[in-house]
Amino acid sequence: MIEFRDVSFAYPARKPLFEGFRWTVARAETWAVIGASGGGKTTLLMMLAGLRQPVSGQVVIDGQVIVRPRPRTGLVLQEYGLLPWATVAENASLGLKLRNYYGPDGRHAPADHTVAPENEIVDFWLTRLGIGAIRQRYPGQISGGQRQRAAIARTLALEPDVLLMDEPFAALDAPTREDLQTLTMELQQEQHLTLVVVTHNIEDAVFLGQKILVLGEPPHKTPVVITNPLAGSPDYRAQPAYFEQCAAVRRRMTAPAQQIGP
Fold this sequence. Notes:
Elements: E1 2-9, E2 18-25, E3 30-35, H1 41-49, E4 56-61, E5 64-65, E6 73-77, H2 88-102, H3 118-128, H4 144-156, E7 162-166, H5 174-191, E8 194-199, H6 202-208, E9 211-215, E10 225-227, H7 240-254
Parallel strand pairs: 3-8, 3-9, 6-7, 7-8
Antiparallel strand pairs: 1-2, 1-4, 4-5, 9-10
Helix pairs in contact: 2-3, 2-4, 6-7
């Protein structure tokens, strides 16, 4: 589904973040990407989203080399990206309005896109995400958790097969964060999404990622991957295995660079 083929990337006048990096994600897998600030987490996500291009190598999704944003890739940001002058419903319908305007051109919308009733689709997702009752409110009138749900509704209304999330729960209180994480995993299973979540929080990574990509000190050449098969299980956070996995990720993150390997 996703391949990084010998990807190298560096910002001008800075040391490389990635050098000949190879990484593969299978369809419908959930991955958490974790590492220190400045280590390349968000850059990796932006390359997946088609918003940054490698210096060399290729990022490939579903057989397509990514040189621009892909219509079936959804992106959810920490800052929500909601228009403050638009209601929850209007924000949730924004992507659909743009897609219906351009039509099935293969660039702004999938080539097989058919114009669908925006209100029906938006109503479905607002209800599914538990915010149907606040559809006429504005972002400034609702909580952070509700704003994030609106951002997720806007993304899922476009029927993505890949969902990218950049620190989506960092600004939320613990109960709201855990509730949204559980909901995200339910939606991933319902929609068979390939999910990649960037986070700096070990506990979040262990709950969300069936596989965890640890980005240590750059440049990154070989993926450091921790398998985590219990990710998303409703009672995982209460199990000893969860705390053991958190400890394992913490050890891997703090290990000296020469000790880190696949």
